[in-house]
Amino acid sequence: MSQSFASRRDRIDRIRARAWALQILYRWEATGRESSLRDTLGDTTGTRRISPRRLPYVREVLGQVEAHLETVDRAVEQALENWRLERLAVVDRALLRLAATEILFMDEIPPKVSIQEAVRLAEQYGGLESPRFVNGVLDALYRRMAESAGA
Question: Engineered SS bond to 140: which of 13, 63, 79, 118, CB 3.0-4.6 Å?
Fold first, then answer.
């Protein structure tokens, strides 16, 4: 298998893994966050088949969201202008948490890739204004993070 084919397949797997992570975050929120994200993932894999190639990334990113939820929410809140996190649409909130977790805690993923993929997911699953909104919030979060790193 050629290197470019393998890296292309890896990118596709990561894109689809993000979509699964988004669905699980959405499900977790929609059920009132009564169980852990790990339990919600278990419930999901009990009824849906997630490719074994994608499952490690889904587990990793959801584990990071769960471990750092307060920090992620605080960073997203600071990037929001005239909005409160709890007032956002569930899909937008889940997308912002997913991408913010990648930006803040997953160094192997370039922040611009996280933002671009969140915008793509917003186009697929969010409302009409979701892509632009998600892009703006994540860009503000990234700029804020870059400024504090340079300070």
Answer: 79
CATH assignment at residue 10: 1.10.940.10
pTM above 0.70, yes or no: yes
Backbone region of residue 33 per phi and psi (left: phi > 0; alpha: psi in -120 to 50; beta: other values): left
What is the mean pLDDT of the segment spanning 84-98? Answer: 95
Q: How far apart are CA 22 and CA 96, in angstroms?
A: 10
Burial 111-124 (b: 16+ CB within 10 A, else e): beebbebbbbbbee
> What Rg value do the Cα atoms of the chain yield, rounded?
15
CB atoms within 10 A of CB 104: 19
The domain of 80 spans: 3-150
Structurally, the chain folds into a number of domains equal to: 1
